[in-house]
Amino acid sequence: MSVRAQKREITMETHSAPTQKVPGRDVTVQEAMTRVTWLLDEACADLLGAQQAVDDCVTKVVIGEEEMRSLQKLDSATQIIEAVATILRNLTCLSTTWKTATVSTAGLYDGVKLSAVQQVLRGESAPDMTHPSGEIDFF
């Protein structure tokens, strides 16, 4: 397990967004892409931690073919998120127009249900989403 994964508590809790709309402010496209990339990097780190936890469990229990295919989907999803984050990072370096073009943060997170994601897109600190070990909330 990586040092970063060891330092983070693994969480699987989802946080619902508030029902009221929070007005957004304009940010550069580059700034917005940087924030989205950060979110993807964090999600990738969480998925890698989850993979490690699953791997630890799988070594103790025999799993069938169907479960193995599901675990391979977890690995594939992790790799896709990592690849998309890399592409966004590359895009932010390639285009100079994105350094001045602006978008509304409210438009960016329209339809996004996770309040933590909305907060990051608005430029606020993400809330602490760590939980004591052994606590898992899927919904």
Residue stretches low in confidence (pLDDT < 50, at least 5 long) are 1-20
Q: Would you list the SSEs in sequence order as H and E?
A: HEHHEHH
Number of helices: 5
What is the mean predicted local confidence, pLDDT?
Answer: 77
Our Rg estimate from Cα atoms comes to: 17 Å
**End-to-end distance, in Å?**
26 Å
Question: Can you walk me through this structure?
Answer:
Residues 1-12 have a biased composition (Basic and acidic residues). Residues 1-21 are annotated as: Disordered. The protein has 139 residues and is mainly alpha-helical. It has a domain at 29-96 and 103-122. 55% of the residues lie in helices and 4% in strands. The protein has a two-stranded antiparallel ribbon with strand order 1-2. It is elongated and about 55 Å long. It starts with a helix and ends in an 18-residue tail after the last helix.
Layout of secondary structure:
Blueprint: H1 3-7, E1 26-28, H2 29-58, H3 65-94, E2 102-104, H4 105-108, H5 115-121
Antiparallel strand pairs: 1-2
Helix pairs in contact: 2-3
Region (Disordered): 1-21
Biased composition (Basic and acidic residues): 1-12
Question: In a nutshell, what does this entry contain?
Answer:
This protein has helices spanning 3-7, 29-58, 65-94, 105-108, 115-121; strands spanning 26-28, 102-104. It is mostly helical.
Structure characteristics:
139 residues; mainly alpha; two-stranded antiparallel sheet; 2 strands; 55% helix
